[in-house]
Design a protein that fits this description.
This protein has about 375 residues and is α+β, with helices and mostly antiparallel strands. The protein contains nine helices and 13 strands. It has one domain. It holds the Pfam family SBP_bac_10.
């Protein structure tokens, strides 16, 4: 065999340097392609989220066709076997027949409190229409004991936890627009002396004690929020997640949001504890609209359309010292806006009858 032939055969493989160059090129290609793949996946998740909100908005309009008004966010009830007033179920219980969940309606006892044991089967139902695909933890059921203070004497036990063994619970990524303020009286009219004053400040479309026909949305259905996102996966502190954002609960910070705080407050507000006036010890992270979509969140408007609002949408200035927007005061659950206070576009969109003039290019 000639020397030329031996030299030729010896160069059939790659040198170490050549191999490293190939690996580096592959790494660069992956680095270039991965963001595009992730962006495509997020676009698909955002599209599914949009579709979910369209379904819920359609269900809400079908509810209006049957009942001549939007579903009530929640109310106070006197459940069987109880001797006290308690907040009732969420507005989703009224929407169930309108997104093909009639079996859940037939399984629910409306004379009982949502947290009473006979309703535990419905509590354990999860609905994909209530889950944003970008909210990864919301579709995962939790098994949790219900704190006794959720039920009080309705539980029939002297203290500790109601559910033993714990119950299966599901959550939601979507909430009703309660307006600019978390209006939530401590009892029904005649029990809470401030009931009328508190509820009168609720200017959203689905809030506590609401009875809102479409004709009451004087700012225009295309300029008024109906439903919006709230990211279950972003609740802080994380150890309290299990009993927040429960889809069947009429508690304020479970199925209603307020624009008292800016959109996605995680990026704009430092929260160290419960905020002024937020029911149930909640804070901006539990009461505000939020999502895990980059740059904003999806909202269904009262006309049935769904639009993406950016984090940069105009909002009123927030004072971390008072835990309230500048120009807003709160006494006994009643919010007051100081005359001359500038209302942000985000807040104006949540008001059904504030008379604000908003152009489409502002959001």
């Amino acid at each position: 065999m000639s020397d030329r032939s031996r030299r030729s055969r010896g160069r059939l493989g790659f040198t170490l340097i050549e191999l490293l160059v190939v690996i580096a090129i592959i790494g660069v290609l992956i680095a270039l392609l991965l963001p595009a793949v992730q962006a495509a996946r997020e676009a698909a998740r955002r599209a599914q989220c949009t579709n979910n909100l369209k379904q819920l908005a359609l269900a809400t309009h079908n509810y209006v066709d049957s009942n001549q008004m939007l579903p009530m966010g929640s109310f106070y009830m006197w459940p069987q076997t109880c001797n006290r007033w308690k907040q009732a179920h969420s507005f989703y219980m009224g929407l169930l027949p309108y997104f093909e969940q009639i079996s859940a309606v037939n399984s629910y006892n409306y004379q009982l409190h949502p947290y009473q044991a006979p309703n535990s089967t419905v509590m354990g139902l999860g609905f994909s229409a209530l889950w944003c695909p970008s909210d990864p933890e919301v579709s995962q059921p939790v098994v949790a004991s219900i704190p006794r203070n959720f039920l009080g004497s309705c539980s029939g036990v002297p203290g500790g936890l109601v559910a033993n063994p714990p119950w299966l619970l599901y959550h939601t990524s979507y909430a009703g627009n309660a307006g600019m303020f978390p209006a939530y009286p401590s009892g029904p009219n005649g029990v809470d002396p401030n009931y009328s004053a508190i509820v009168s400040k609720a200017n959203g479309t689905i809030h506590f004690g609401s009875q809102v026909p479409l004709s009451a949305i004087r700012d225009g259905t295309s300029n008024t929020l109906l439903l919006g996102e709230r990211a279950f996966s972003r609740i802080l502190p994380p150890e309290s997640k299990d009993v927040w954002f429960l889809w069947f609960s009429g508690a304020y910070s479970d199925t209603m949001f307020t624009t008292l705080f800016p959109l996605n407050p995680y990026n704009r507000i430092r929260v160290t504890g419960p905020d002024v006036g937020v029911p149930g010890g909640g804070n901006a992270y539990t009461a505000a609209a939020s999502s895990l979509h980059p740059g904003g969140a999806n909202f269904a408007f009262a006309d049935g359309s769904v639009r993406f609002l950016k984090d940069t949408i105009d909002t009123w200035q927030y004072d971390e010292a008072t835990l309230l927007p500048v120009g807003v005061t709160q006494t006994n659950g009643v919010y007051t806006v100081v005359p001359g206070t500038r209302v942000g576009v985000f807040q104006a969109l949540s008001s059904r009858n504030g008379g604000e003039v908003i152009s489409a290019d502002q959001f």
